[in-house]
Amino acid sequence: MKILWILLAVFYRGVLAAYPDRIVGGLPTTIESYPSMVQVELLNQITNIWSQNCAGSILTSRFILSAAQCFTGWNLDFPYRRIRAGATYRNVGGSVVYVDAAVNHPLYGSNGLEADVSVIRLSSPLIYSNTIRQATIIIPNSVIPDNTRVVLAGWGRISTAGPISHIIRDVTVYTINNRLCAERYSKLGWPITVTSNMICSGILDVGGQDACHGDSGGPMYLGNVVIGIISGGYSCANCTFPGISTSVASYTDWIVNTVNGWSYS
């Protein structure tokens, strides 16, 4: 059996005019507000305890969209990963399903945060409910205008090096001109090159609102449409250097083709 479709948003067609992991300046909310979100949990090899480390979005009952950085390295590969869906609180409640396999985009690792996207297959299907629902992802090659109001959500740290949130939080930020973002990051000398396949966001020259460590792989929403995958950036909620998310529109075709081409054997 193959998945034959993924729900896509017909949305603004043509004109939508430290760095692993990464909600700062936001407020607590509930999973009912974001039922397509899941926690990605990591098994600690020393303590043998599972805990939330990244996030993701439900593509179908058997597939999750997340960041490639969350499924890279021997201890981050799928045998040590599972997802928790339908849970407001970190590591508590909801439905736990183990990961069967993960496919990172083939260009991930070639240039900093470029192509930081992964499609995850679950060992068994999720059961949809009012807290577990399929996400809507943006159509291919859509362009998001600068200064567009978007929402980030997750269970990550509430400040740089601060405590991890025990409850899902969300925060409103604004998209930032890609060229300006690239110019600022170029001054850091980091192995991060901001490209057209990324969305920069925050409150420019003010800061205080952003994703943070533990939010990677989670969604950037425009309305109820997933347009980005939280990826990284310099510090959290920095006034000078915006947060960086993978632009889903750049990879929608790859995401759909990966899901549709995957058998259940």
UniProtKB/TrEMBL annotation:
UniProt key word Calcium: no
Gene Ontology BP annotations: proteolysis
Peptidase S1 domain residues: 23-260
GO molecular function: serine-type endopeptidase activity
Superkingdom as given in the UniProt entry: Eukaryota
PANTHER family tied to this protein: AT26814P-RELATED, POLYSERASE-RELATED
Recorded family membership: Belongs to the peptidase S1 family.
Protein name per the record: Jg14489 protein
Species assigned in the record: Pararge aegeria aegeria
Gene: jg14489
